[in-house]
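Collaborator request log, item 7. Partner lab (contact: R.S.) asked for a structural prediction of Fpg/Nei family DNA glycosylase to inform their binding assays.
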Amino acid sequence: MPELPEVEALVRFLDDRAAGRSVVAADVAQIAALKTFDPPVTALVGGTVTGARRHGKWLDLVVDDGLHLVFHLARGGWLRWSEKSPTTPVRPRLGGGGGGKIAALALRVRFDDGAGFDLTEAGTRKRLAVHVVRHPAEVRAIETLGVEPLDPAFTADVLGELMAARNQQVKGLLRDQSSIAGIGNAYSDEILHAARTSPFKLTRSFAPDEVARLHAAVGEVLAAAVATSSGRPAAELKDAKRSGMRVHGRAGQKCPVCGDTVREVSFADRSLQYCATCQTGGQVLADRRMSRLLR
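Returned to partner:
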């Protein structure tokens, strides 16, 4: 799933490529992906793109006359840019399509110079969401977003308040979009590794110096990832993300800090990776499917 650094890179890419161009076509291929009906997606046609923005993991293509094409790529979605976008008619589909392995077209937007982009989604669980709205806050998931972790307003004190508000596992807090916007499964693993913290440590058990260390790790990990992703074309962002990971997605490999083996805890629909030496004092966390997690 694209997270803050990749979404920020996509936003900058779109802002650079699409700003000033007029929309000549906006065609929905996957009807289930379109979550709004007023304004219709056809209202974008004829408008000029004034820029692109990010709200957490949401991308926002701003079109004049006060319209916003807002979309969330979810787990299997992606944006594919083409300097010569296909002009063949798009056939709307009610079902998922794509057979689960092939990325199925959900939306195609084409501009007056022939360029454009496709929103596609792979996998059988279709969660990509497209909204056409007059203001981003009309999307409930955007209205309820928490603080942006790279915003100066996100201080160690703010993080401490969030951690004290409810006693929960720290990884869950980092992934909670209503608390901190933009961090998902991958970067929460990376942040916790950098902070030398167990993913299951309870938030109210953190000492002030541990809160400060976690806050610093959030900023350092995300800023480095944004810098790595910045300026890359959309097609290269997934590989750049994978290559920059220290523990996430690297179970069985050596930790780059201490040399211990990176371990994994699996859940029904996701997994996390961590280093026992760096994060849990050498304790191996039990697989949640087998027994209780060690804290």
